[in-house]
Amino acid sequence: QVQFVESGGGLVQAGGSLRLSCVVSVSTFYISTLGWYRQVPGKERELVASITRAGTTNSAASVKDRFTISRDNAKNTVYLQMNSLKPEDSAVYSCFAATIANTYWGQGTQVTVSS
User: Fold this and answer.
1) Helix (H, G, I), strand (E, B) or coil at 15
2) How far apart are CA 26 and CA 39, in angstroms?
């Protein structure tokens, strides 16, 4: 069982920044891909960004040049640096960890961007 401790969400004004962190309970050696999804009630879950063990990143077009994903394998942690936040970025952000066999999800942290 993989467990997550997510932190860094909160309320911020438009144009501000937040940094999300997600500590994974198992060594990220066993995790091929870490990343973040977000979801707004009534809408489909959206992949925000992901990063492989080798460091290859992928991000949604809506957040490119504003959000940066990184991982620290020694700390079993993945980060999402979010800059120039917009009200439409408001959502519950959930960390995920993918192995060859399964994908595991965190409970999520709320991000609210006021205009």
Assistant:
1) coil
2) 25
